[in-house]
Write a structure and sequence with these properties.
With 400 residues, this protein is α+β, with helices and mostly antiparallel strands. The strands form three sheets. A seven-stranded antiparallel beta sheet has the order 2-1-4-5-6-7-8. A six-stranded mixed beta sheet has the order 9-13-14-3-15-16, with helices on both faces. The protein has a three-stranded antiparallel beta sheet with strand order 10-11-12, with no helix packed on it. The chain is globular. The protein is built from eight helices and 16 strands. It has two domains: 306 residues, 3-Layer(aba) Sandwich (Rossmann fold), CATH 3.40.50; 61 residues, no CATH class.
Length: 400
Amino acid sequence: MLCQFTFKNFKSYRDETTLDFQAASIPEFHDSLITEEDASDLLPVSVIYGPNGGGKSNLLQALSCVISKVVKSVHDLDKNREPIILQQKTDAVPFLFDTVSANEPIEFRLFFRIGRNEYCYYIAFQDDEVTSESLSRKTVTGKKPAELFDRENDKITLGSSINRKSINTNVNPKMPYLSFLAINYDIPDISEVMLWFERCIIRSYSNPIAEHQIMLEKYPDFKDLLILALNDMDIDITDYRYDEDSHQLYMKRKLGKKEYELSFAEESDGTRKLIAALPVILLALRDGRLLIIDELDAKLHPKLLRYVISLFKNKEINRHGAQLLFTSHDMYTMRSTVFRRDEIWFAAEDDDHASEIYSLHELRNEDGDRIKNTASYNKQYLEGRYGADPYLQNMLGGNF
C-alpha cells in the first residue's frame, strides 16, 4: 500500500509536493480505511480535482514516471515477476519555466507498506541519468530504518543486510540500482519491493487506445465477476466471447428466450469504457494493488463512477488493501456521502505557472476553521472557495 508520495521539479511541479495516503484523524468513513495493527491507517481512495492545465495529470504522471523507470529495465529483459500493466512510458521532464529548475535533478520519494514492512525509496534523475538513489526498510513498529543501499552518482554503498562480495556495485548510470539488483540477484527484500512496483497499474483514459486494451482474454477467471459487476450497473450482458479469426470481442444479451450478440465496437462509449476498465479494477481489488487512472470519469455516468469508488471503500470487497488514485471533473461525486475530506485533493497553478496540491482537509474557511464534513463540497468548489478555481466566477461575473 502507498503511504506517501513526494516529488520535486517534475513538469509543472517546481517545488516539493506531497500526496499523502495516510488517514487524518477525522470521523467520516472510518470503516473504509485500510488498517493494520500498530500502523497508521491508510486511505483506499484519493481523487484529484482542478482546472484544465492545473497539474492533475502531471501529478499522476510523476508517480507513473518513477514506477515505469523502475520496472522498464526488468520488463525489457523479461525478468519481471508479474505481468506489468502500464499505459505508456512517462519521460522525466523538469520544470522548465525558470533557468534554475531546468538544470536541477528531478526527485521522487515513495513510502509504501508491504505486510509488516515499510519501505522508503528515493531516486533522482538529471538528463536521464540517476544522480542519487536509496532504499531503506523498517517494520511498522520499528523506529529506525535499516538502509539497504545508498547511491550517489557512481558510488554505491550496501547496507549490512545485502552486503555481499558477490554483489556488483558497478551499474549503468541510466539504470536504477533497484532494477539492477532485481534483475541479477535473488534478494528477498529487493524482490518484495520490485513485486510491489510491478503490481502497480497505470491507465490513462485521455488516451483513446486505453479503451481498446480490454484484457479479458488474459484474465478468464474474472468472467463471472465482470458480468456480475456490469449487471449491477444495469448493463444486461449475460456472456461474452472473443473471436480469434476476426479478433473481435462480442457481448451477449438475452431478450426473452433468444440470445443476441453485439460486437465491442458497436457498444456505447460508456459501456466500452467500463468493459475496458473493469478487468484492471477487479485485478487491483483481488491482489491489493495500487491503481492509477487519469480521467476515470470520462464517458461514465456519475452513478457508475460512484459504484467504482464504492468497490474500493467496501472492506468486504477490498480485503487486501487495494488503492485507487484518479483524476476527475465530475461534480456529482464531490460529496461528503462519497469521500472523506482527506481523500479529496485539488491541483492548481500559481502565478509562476507552478502547480501545487492540497487536500480539502487542509483548507480553512473565512473564520479560520476547517471545512466541515456537512458542507456542500461541490457547490463551494464551483463558487471558487477552494482555490482551484473552475472558471465559474469568471464566466458569470468577469469581462469576456
